[in-house]
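Form 7-S
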Amino acid sequence: MEKFKDFFRAVVDEDDPSAIEKFDDELIDDDNWFIVDDKQKRIGISLPGIYEDDNEINWRWR
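Output:
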């Protein structure tokens, strides 16, 4: 998580919608986001919006 903290902050920066543009296209591409289930099967997800303000990691509709 530490490695991507600035990226996740940029994703939810509503004051600067272009903040995410400084990051590599591979990070922004929804096709590169997935979770892995108990059987090691990859399940695609959309780019998460992670808000740290509530001291939890939350995925919310953006």
